[in-house]
Design goal:
Blueprint lengths: L4 E4 L5 H6 L4 E2 L13 H12 L7 E12 L2 E9 L1 H11 L24 H7 L1 H9 L4 E5 L3 H11 L7 H8 L3 H8 L3 H6 L8 H15 L7 H10 L4 H18 L13 H16 L7 H11 L12 H11 L7 H21 L1
Parallel strand pairs: 2-4, 3-5
Antiparallel strand pairs: 1-5, 3-4
Helix pairs in contact: 2-3, 4-5, 8-10, 8-12, 10-12, 10-13, 12-13, 13-16, 15-16
């Protein structure tokens, strides 16, 4: 078993950590998404620091041999405490100011309220110095066993409401680098109108991989995704093939959508679109355009009929299509919705 030691960092004041931030890797593969704290939460952390309250420990993994990442010499990788460090550094950088109702408990002073760090240095250099000289509780772990570090990350975050995608990412395995690579595809980067907060892109990419493995729609609930992740944890060759398949489908999807396309605002519809493109890619069929999807949405919105029994069969299908949107990860719902879209596209593309 690899050695494992844990000790307090000798010099861990705010100023020192700020100076050495270039040597700290904030986003090792097991880390959760950064930059998700609201400004109010960041202000509360600074309030706590300036008023002398304890904040949770920060855990760093010290590499026995420094890494080189993007030309930077990395001495540490962050295990836990990303949001706290980013909040502190953000305040020092002037990204936000203290809350307008900030009060220094020692003397009841409110002079620092609403001030950025540079403004605080000018108006109250003693309080600014107090902040930068404050020692944070930083623990340093020394080990060459990456799996042990990943296990520690998972355990430290058990009390934090990690979502399923964040937990899977923390476990590692062959799918993790593939999923992370797929979300750099232009479809995710340019076409989706929402970002990767809480690993929403990662979750979609994993679903795409599972459907490519199954050859079509199937359940993609938490249990199925977890089982798929674990079953392929060591199957790098097969996972690489799945990645190539998904990439080819995403390549076909990119021309069909605008940048930040509102047609892709709903994750359930993205799933149906992907399954349609994947089916057509496998069969070497004509790929649909954005115009076809707009026409499909218009057809589904028709309300010319007062009573549902008066609707023709295809419009009854549209009602069912919309109703099944409430279960976007269910295999039956995905199969039915894909069938409705495909029947429309066959007619639309055939008439074009």
């Amino acid at each position: 078993m690899s050695s494992f030691t844990l000790s307090a960092m000798r010099n861990s004041n705010v100023a020192y950590l700020n100076r050495m931030r270039a040597q700290i890797q904030l986003d090792p593969p097991y880390q959760r998404q950064g930059a998700v704290w609201s400004v109010d939460k960041k202000r509360l952390l600074l309030d706590s620091l300036l008023n002398g309250f304890d904040i949770p420990k920060i855990y760093l993994h010290e590499h026995s041999t420094p890494l080189v990442v993007d030309g930077r010499r990395i001495r540490y990788s962050l295990i836990d405490g990303r949001q706290r460090l980013e909040a502190i550094w953000g305040y020092l950088d002037g990204d936000f100011a203290l809350a307008d109702d900030f009060v220094l408990f020692d003397d009841g002073s409110t002079t620092a309220a609403g001030k950025t760090f540079s403004e605080l240095e000018r108006s109250d250099d003693l309080l600014a110095a107090f902040l930068t000289s404050m020692n944070l509780d930083v623990c340093v772990i020394r080990t060459d066993d990456v799996e042990m570090i990943e296990e520690m990350f998972s355990r430290l975050n058990e009390a934090v409401p990690l979502n399923a995608a964040e937990k899977r990412n923390g476990r590692g395995g062959a799918l993790r680098p593939v999923v992370r690579g797929l979300v750099d595809h232009p479809f995710f980067v340019k076409k989706l109108p929402f970002d990767n907060t809480r690993y929403r892109h990662y979750d979609l990419a994993l679903k795409f991989l599972l459907w490519s493995d199954h050859g079509g729609p199937s359940d993609v609930k938490k249990r199925q995704l977890d089982e798929f992740w674990d079953a392929h944890s060591a199957n790098e060759a097969h996972v690489a093939q799945l990645s190539d398949t998904v990439t080819a489908v995403l390549d076909a999807m990119v021309p069909a959508f605008e940048d930040g396309d509102r047609l892709l605002a709903n994750v359930g519809m993205i799933s149906v679109y992907f399954l349609s493109f994947a089916k057509r890619h496998r069969a070497s069929e004509t790929m649909p355009s954005r115009t076809a999807f707009v026409a499909f949405n218009e057809a589904r919105s028709l309300d010319r009929f007062e009573h549902e029994e008066a609707l023709p069969p295809e419009l009854k299908d549209y009602i069912e299509f919309d109703g099944l949107a409430q279960t976007p990860n269910d295999g039956y719902a995905l199969t039915f919705r894909l069938g409705v879209l495909e029947r429309f596209l066959d007619k639309y593309l055939g008439a074009s």
